[in-house]
Amino acid sequence: MSDLTSPWVRRYAPLIPGGAVLDLACGSGRHSRHLAALGHAVVAVDRDAEALAAAAGPEIITSAIDLEEAGAVWPFGPDRFAGIVVTNYLHRPLMADMLTSLAPNGVLIYETFADGNAQFGKPSNPAFLLQAGELLEWARTHGLRVVAFEDGVIDTPKAAMVQRLCAVKPDFPRVAALLPPF
């Protein structure tokens, strides 16, 4: 429950039902540790073996996978994860397969940079920036129900333009979406 945990992840992670959680592009594991502290078995994936070494810990299985290399295939089966958490990462070719790996009552928590971020620095390449409404369109296309969405500027940990989404699969019970106070 480190101060490094994204407030967005901290706010919505308690909605994830029991089961394994994927922390995609986990870096040094700030969210993996938070999710494990909430009682989840975590699969932490990143291409950086050094970062993964820092992510390792109780209830955290690390896996060094470069999902952007030529010929890379999504390594997880359907309905595998109760939750999927992605922050500061965007690789559009993964989206459909990633969302297939979300359990029927699973929770997606996604937060990354959006178009307009160049004014604050990197990333500035459009390939790594969400377009207006892009996360909402993914949710609609894949039959997810949006619990929360934000699109705008943040100032912590540094100024950036971001989009944030918490969405659930159709079998997630509406009454389970107990929203914490601000």
From TrEMBL:
<dbReference type="GO" id="GO:0008168">
    <property type="term" value="F:methyltransferase activity"/>
</dbReference>
<protein>
    <submittedName>
        <fullName>Methyltransferase domain-containing protein</fullName>
    </submittedName>
</protein>
<feature type="domain" description="Methyltransferase">
    <location>
        <begin position="21"/>
        <end position="104"/>
    </location>
</feature>
<dbReference type="Pfam" id="PF13649">
    <property type="entry name" value="Methyltransf_25"/>
</dbReference>
<keyword id="KW-0808">Transferase</keyword>
<dbReference type="InterPro" id="IPR041698">
    <property type="entry name" value="Methyltransf_25"/>
</dbReference>
<keyword id="KW-0489">Methyltransferase</keyword>
<dbReference type="GO" id="GO:0032259">
    <property type="term" value="P:methylation"/>
</dbReference>
